[in-house]
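We modelled the chain as a single entity of 281 amino acids. Its sequence is:
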Amino acid sequence: MLTRVVFNQKGGVGKSSITVNLAAISAAQGYRTLVIDLDPQSNSSQYILGSAHDSTHSSAELPTFSPNMYHFFEEVVAQPQSKGILGSAIGSILNNKVKGLDAVIHQSPFPNLHVIPSSAELGSLEHALESKHKIYKLRDALQKIASQYDRVYIDTPPAFNFFTLSALIASNRVLIPFDCDVFSHRALLTLLENVVETRQDHNDDLAVEGVIVNQFQAQAKLPREIVAQLRQDQLPVFDTMLPPSVMMKESHLKNLPLIHLAADHKLTQTYRQLFDEIERE
């Protein structure tokens, strides 16, 4: 099982779109694929599951898919930490009731593609998880289901917080979405420092797989200059760059990944090229 985290602490760079569309192509090519949504905004969850039967919502709010990552981490917080012979015995009995990630996985409408949805409530658990030092629980839970999946894609919130760090610890590779502006370039340096520190302190297997340039306008001078600077800085920028397209908005609106909405569209083909380039790394 190869686990990739899609991470950038800057918002609006296309994390969810990239996560879902790469995962959908992975599944379409026969890989048993799981998407884990750790962003409380739940964009990946909604993109894949749409208005699935196991969601509840009013007209004024987004769907809440249940069960979800909140329930997994709520269970983690509730696990007993008693010491001594009696405490260990009680803990053993109670731990047998812990369901783990298996209990919060949803089958998507697409073959080979599963998703663990997020929840707007997820952030309310962050302090408790940090104070109880539960930073390795996602990694440990993923290892228990490793035989079920070939590829895992983790969508993260636009912040370097407990959930992002958990994802980095649980992953083998980092994909960095990047939109071509000066602020993104500056933020990228901080992001890379966070990845390096996580590798040193928590996860020797973690590596930056590459920078995915999104919303790239080849005819404009500034994007070309910024990409050239990234390469001059010896950053691993993928050759395949994603252009802007209204097709992506339609894909979001219809809750259909591009490969299932418009398989022959130029943007879909670009995503296929990007997937192939990533898999060759």
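As a brief sanity check on the tokenised model: The chain has one domain: 2-280. The mean pLDDT is 89.
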